[in-house]
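Lab meeting prep.
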Amino acid sequence: MKTLPDISDLYPQMLNVSNKRFLRYGKSNTLLNGEIETVFCTDDNSLVKSILAEDGRGRILVIDAAGVNHVSMIGDQIAAEAVKNNWQGVVLNGYIRDVKEINDLPISIIAKGSVFKKTEKFGLGKRGAMISFAGLIFKPGYWLYADENNFGISRQKLEF
């Protein structure tokens, strides 16, 4: 099983690695690797919920919540829906809730931490947006790789 450092060694010019450390939640401890979908939304997770209700086809949802730290973007119900709909994982520039329940699910969720308050529901946000955080630029169709070490992205799928 390859690790993020192994992939970085194989593709030093093609893998851009986060300059920030995030926390990893969920039961899955395998390498997270897949094509990404993006969404930008703050203070409102209704778009996140609707995206994760779709067939994920093994993709990874990258959410830029602008680091908002007073509400959570994902809780146990949305995470369970993501598992049911074949999403491999989520990378979130924001916070989750229901840590114990999420840690029992077979999914990887990478986030800044946890906060218990949920968001408003107004349907605000932008899907498929180019987003930037942790020193990286994320676009739909890019590939994300993550493990316990950190996470990184590539403009194309890396073979290993």
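Slide two material, second protein:
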Amino acid sequence: MPQAIVSVKPFDSVFLQPWIQTALAEHDPRLGDRLIPPVPTQDLSQPELSSKVLSNIRHFVKVTRFFDVDHYTVYASIRDSKAQLLS
């Protein structure tokens, strides 16, 4: 039986995601503030209901794998509708 070669989708790699390509092209040192907006002080009691968080297209993520917890720092990979990131 011949081997089947499965084609790879162009966006399988996290580095090929469109928003990462745009971010790298702009090379903005304050990029994190645009991708994940800071939560206003008055919304800190319930950040999941903050209008800034809810209006951001990247606010829902799924933890795909936990790697380690060290000194209150969690190492895991997360996935949203656009990318998979190691955090």
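Talking points for slide two:
Helices lie at 18-26, 31-35, 51-55.
The chain has a mean pLDDT of 67.
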